[in-house]
Amino acid sequence: MQLSDLKIKIADRSARIGVIGLGYVGLPVAALFAQKGFDVIGIDIKAERIEKINLGFSPIGCNEPELDGLIMEAAASGKLKATTDYNLIKDCDVVLIDVETPVNDDHIPEYSALKESLKSLAGVMKPGVLVILESTIMPGTMQKIVLPMLEDLSGRKCGEDFYLGNCPERVMPGKLINNLRKMSRVVGSDSPATADVMKELYQHVVEAELDEADMVTAELVKTVENTFRDVQIAFANEVALICEALNADVWRVRELVRKSPGRDMLLPGAGVGGHCIPKDPWLLASAVRGLDVNVRLIPAARKVNNEMPKHMLRLLKSKIGDLKGKMILIMGFAYLADSDDTRDSPSDYLMRFLEAEGAVVAGHDPYVEELSGNIYVRAKNCDAAILMTAHAEYETLDFERLKSQMARPLLVDGRNLWKKSVPKAAGFELVRLGDFSA
Ligand code: SAJ
Hints:
By secondary structure, the protein is α/β, with parallel strands linked by helices. It has 18 helices and 13 strands.
């Protein structure tokens, strides 16, 4: 099929869309296009996820406004069908790829899921299909991996027998649907003609700007924007450590720094978790591995941020000394406030550090099923409590009641959640990250 014909089919929504990977990104994307009237076939390797979706239920635990309704509607209308069988997307005119693209312990991109999906797709994709990668990838992946794999395995020529694009997503847990609709997207493609068709596709669901670019630019924008954030957070964390050493209060310093135009200093914290920020800087840095580019700031920022859970341990030990046999309550395991997403959570690292020092760890998180429940009961006989995630529920803690339960009223605040006078008034010893002021 020619691109011009494809554009017409997209315009009248008769184009059939395949979505490979029905996770945090692929599932909302599939549901949104189905809601717009496209026939969507979703592919995933997890049969239990497929079953749930075909019954109209979301397999994504956290509360995602609109998502449940969209899936129910799409499954009921028959517009969204989920399967493990790639043969069902052989007639698709557009295929979106939303599989995971993690990095391994050596910070090297781990593309097994991506390569598996490309291999399976290449075996079934029809002539004239438009393939769009939405996953976050190391700059250069499209040209060096995706394009050659699809050409070699399908025997077809990119730009003639199939078309290729890269349109990174900008979703966020808790705002998946909102972000897909409201955030601008970079439309990276192999040609302006392909970009034109991609924009026709995305304008059905994206209300914001669709910015055309070549594919490496699209890959760079996504990884750079998240690396920018990681470096900014690392700066705030390093200033927090300096303020501790000078017996100053980083939160007051930050408040006054931000009065200076363009000094939007981010928040120091107990760590940087999630599936974007800790990973994307390594995808960016990997793009120039082996080339004559000395990438120093990006790894250094990652090291500063990765050290923060250990710093929380140091703050605790400054008050409690030997942790052997001590019972410590970790408050918050989600990586983000008011979310249930525990992927790459700083609290997991802290828990391992505490256990390595012989402490007994109690965990609480109102959003994580196995950790939710009555925090005062969970705090019973604890020698200290460490706040790792600024869930709103913790803002209004009854400190008198908490104190009555604990073996020792010691609190370590890793997120500047409480005014220091409040727990202190209830008789707590309080250690605040970044604030050693009187
Ligand atoms: N964090 C800090 N200090 C800060 C901001 C965040 O310590 O000032 C920590 C958080 O506690 C968390 C981690 O960093 O553990 C990541 O927080 P985040 O607010 O960046 O949330 P994410 O990981 O969901 O990032 C997403 C990203 N969006 C996409 O990838 C599409 C990121 O690009 C966005 O900037 C971010 O949401 C956002 O703006 O909220």
